[in-house]
From TrEMBL:
Lineage: Bacteria, Bacillati, Actinomycetota, Actinomycetes, Kitasatosporales
Matching PANTHER family: GDSL-LIKE LIPASE/ACYLHYDROLASE, PUTATIVE (AFU_ORTHOLOGUE AFUA_2G00820)-RELATED, GDSL-LIKE LIPASE_ACYLHYDROLASE, PUTATIVE (AFU_ORTHOLOGUE AFUA_2G00820)-RELATED
Organism in which the protein naturally occurs: Streptantibioticus rubrisoli
SGNH hydrolase-type esterase domain segment(s): 227-417
Pfam families: Lipase_GDSL_2
Signal peptide extent: 1-22
Keyword entries, A-Z: Hydrolase, Signal
The keyword Transcription regulation is annotated on this UniProt entry: no
Protein name: SGNH/GDSL hydrolase family protein
Length: 437
C-alpha cells in the first residue's frame, strides 16, 4: 500500500466514524415529551466520560399565557429569543411549548447559537446549529403540549446569552409566551433562522415566545436550583437586559465560586402568580396557580435538586384577598410535599414588606406576619431564606428599605435583588429531601 492510499483509507475510516457518531447524537432526541428529565442522553466517544455527566437545566422560564392579539401566531416571521445561561456544558437541547396555543404549532426551522458580545441578535461565529426533533427539522407541537429537541454538540458557556430562533410559515394560533422577560428579543420577516448575523432582525420584543427551557450536558454542575415565585422572582423591576433578577445574582454566586455548590439556577417566576388561585381571564398573564404549575414548571426540570419558593404576597394583596394565613401556609406545605415526592429539597422565602404599596391595608400586614411566623417555625419548608429580613427597613420593618425600593414599595430594585440573593445560604441548597416536614 502506498502512503497516499494509506492516508485515503484513514480519511475514509475517520469519515465513517464521524457519521456514526453524528447518527448516535441525532437519534437520541424525541419530539413529544411530557417530562424532560426522562429524555435520552447523548453519548460521547468515551463511555466513561458520558456516564459521569448529566442533563442539567441552565435556563428556563414559565409559560404564562397566550399572547394577546395573536390569533394566527407569527406566520412567515423568525423569532429570535435571547436567553441567559447559568451553567455551561458540552451539548444542549431546547424545549418549546404550545401550552396556551389554540392550534398545532408547526415549526419548519429552529436554530441555537451563542450570542456574540454585542448584546444584540448576532451569533458568535461558528456556533449556530440547526435543531432537529426526532431527526427532522420540522416539528409539530400539539395544543397544550411541549417538545424537546434532539441534543446538539455545542460548547455552551456559563453566564452567556444564547439565541434560539424559530420559524413557521403557517398560521398557528395563539402564541404561548412569557410577558415579563426583562430581556430584549428580536423578530424578522421571512426565514432567517440560519442567519448568524442579526441584520434582518429589526423588530425588538420584550417577550419570550415558545421557548421554555435550555438544558446542557455537564459533568461539572451538581444539579439545579429552581426558583418558583411571583413578580419578585420574575425580576419585574430589574434593569432590562442586565440579568439582575435575584436568581441571576444567585447563579453568579453558584458559578464555580467558593461561596457555594456549582449549580444551575432556573427562574420559574410569573408576575402576578399566587399560591392558591388561578387568574381570572382578565389577568391570564399571571399564570396558573403555583399549586397547579409546580410540577410542570419546576419539579420536572432536569437535574432539579432544590426548590426555592417565593410566593404568597399576591394571595394577600390581589382581589379576592386571602386573609386566612392558614390557607396560604397549607398551600405552601402542599408544594413542599409535592417536591419531596420528587426527591427535591425545599427552601422557603419569607414574605417581603409592602407597606406603601397602593393596595396596602393594615390587615394585610397581619396576614403577612402570620405566614412568616409559620415559615420561620420550620413547619413549612426544609430550610428558610429570610427575604423579609434582607429587604425590610430596620427603622420601619413593615416597609422596604429605601435603598432597595424600586419606587412602588412592593418590588425591589437591582440592589434589593442582590440583597435577596445574598440572603440565600448556599449550605441549605444541598441535602436530602425529608419524607415530611
Amino acid at each position: 500500500m502506498t502512503r497516499k492510499s494509506g492516508y485515503a483509507l484513514l480519511a475514509a475510516l475517520a469519515s465513517v466514524v464521524a457519521v456514526v457518531c453524528a447518527a448516535i447524537l441525532v437519534s437520541v432526541g424525541g419530539t413529544h415529551i411530557d417530562d424532560a428529565s426522562t429524555a435520552p442522553q447523548p453519548r460521547s466517544t468515551a463511555a466513561a466520560q458520558a456516564d459521569a455527566g448529566a442533563w442539567v437545566g441552565t435556563w428556563a422560564t414559565a409559560p404564562a399565557a397566550a399572547e394577546p392579539n395573536t390569533p394566527h401566531g407569527y406566520p412567515d416571521v423568525s423569532i429570535r429569543n435571547v436567553v441567559h445561561t447559568s451553567v455551561g456544558g458540552t451539548a444542549a437541547r431546547v424545549q418549546l411549548s404550545n401550552l396556551f396555543g389554540t392550534a398545532p404549532l408547526v415549526l419548519t426551522h429552529t436554530t441555537l447559537a451563542v450570542a456574540d458580545a454585542t448584546g444584540g441578535p448576532d451569533a458568535l461565529p461558528g456556533t449556530l446549529a440547526a435543531l432537529s426533533f426526532g431527526g427532522r427539522t420540522t416539528v409539530t407541537v400539539p395544543v397544550g403540549e411541549s417538545v424537546l429537541s434532539d441534543p446538539v454538540r455545542l460548547r455552551v458557556p456559563a453566564a452567556a446569552d444564547l439565541l434560539i430562533t424559530t420559524f413557521s410559515p403557517y398560521a398557528s394560533g395563539a402564541v404561548t409566551y412569557h410577558p415579563h422577560a426583562r430581556q430584549t428579543s428580536y423578530l424578522a420577516q421571512g426565514d432567517h433562522t440560519a442567519d448568524p448575523d442579526g441584520a434582518a432582525f429589526t423588530e425588538q420584543s420584550p417577550y419570550w415566545r415558545y421557548v421554555t427551557a435550555v438544558d446542557v450536558w455537564t459533568d461539572q454542575a451538581k444539579g439545579a436550583v429552581v426558583a418558583l415565585g411571583d413578580s419578585i422572582t420574575d425580576g419585574f423591576t430589574s434593569t432590562v437586559g442586565a440579568n439582575h433578577r435575584w436568581p441571576d445574582y444567585l447563579a453568579q454566586r453558584l458559578d464555580g465560586s467558593p461561596q457555594g455548590p456549582h449549580m444551575g439556577v432556573l427562574n420559574e417566576g410569573i408576575s402576578g402568580n399566587r399560591v392558591l388561585l388561578d387568574p381570572t381571564p382578565s389577568l391570564a398573564g399571571d399564570g396558573p396557580s403555583a399549586l397547579h404549575r409546580a410540577n410542570r414548571d419546576a419539579l420536572s426540570r432536569p437535574g432539579a435538586r432544590t426548590l426555592i419558593v417565593e410566593l404568597g404576597i399576591n394571595d394577600i394583596i390581589m382581589s379576592p384577598h386571602q386573609t386566612d394565613a392558614d390557607a396560604i401556609v397549607a398551600g405552601l406545605q402542599e408544594i413542599t410535599r409535592e417536591a419531596h415526592a420528587h426527591g427535591i429539597r425545599v427552601v422557603g422565602g419569607t414574605l417581603t414588606p409592602f407597606e406603601g404599596e397602593r393596595g396596602y391595608q393594615p390587615q394585610f400586614e397581619i396576614v403577612r406576619q402570620q405566614v412568616n411566623s409559620a415559615i420561620r417555625s420550620g413547619r413549612v419548608f426544609d430550610a428558610v431564606v429570610d427575604f423579609d429580613r434582607a429587604l425590610r427597613d430596620p427603622v420601619r420593618p413593615t416597609r422596604l428599605f429605601p435603598a432597595y425600593d424600586s419606587g412602588d414599595h412592593l418590588h425591589p430594585n437591582d440592589a434589593g435583588y442582590l440583597a435577596m440573593a445574598d440572603a440565600v445560604d448556599p449550605a441549605t441548597l444541598l441535602g436530602d429531601a425529608p419524607a415530611s416536614v
